[in-house]
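hey so i finaly got around to running the thing on Large ribosomal subunit protein eL14 domain-containing protein from Porphyra umbilicalis. pasting the sequence first so u can double check i didnt mess up the copy paste, my clipboard has been acting weird all day
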Amino acid sequence: MPYARFVQIGRVCLVNYGPMRGSLVVVVNVVDHNRVLVEGPAAGISRQVIRLTRLSLTDLMVPIQLGARPGTLAKAYAKAGIDEAWAASSWGKKLSTRSKRANLSDYDRFKVMVARKTKSRAIGKEVKRLKKAAA
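ok and heres what it spat out for the 3d tokens, dont ask me to read them lol
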């Protein structure tokens, strides 16, 4: 399968380093082979140059022209439904789950542990019952 995620105008990227970590941004212009001009309309990130090493390219695209104005970008971003598409993607779900688990309290972690043990016991009993019935 050929590589499909290219650095191009309208590519949605995830910031993976720095104070904007975890935010979605859109490539507005390519400065050179190391840097791009990005803006994050949903996260409220103003237009700025960022290194490509600090970005992870996603499969999502926003149909915009080179150097699109902030209002045009915001409208195209909303029309493309990027936030909903990101939330429905496996990558977005995994990051959401990871952040939820990181923010659990001790009691919430305890409840998760008890639920996991209960589920494992129920599955174990069912497996034993099916093995006994098959024999």
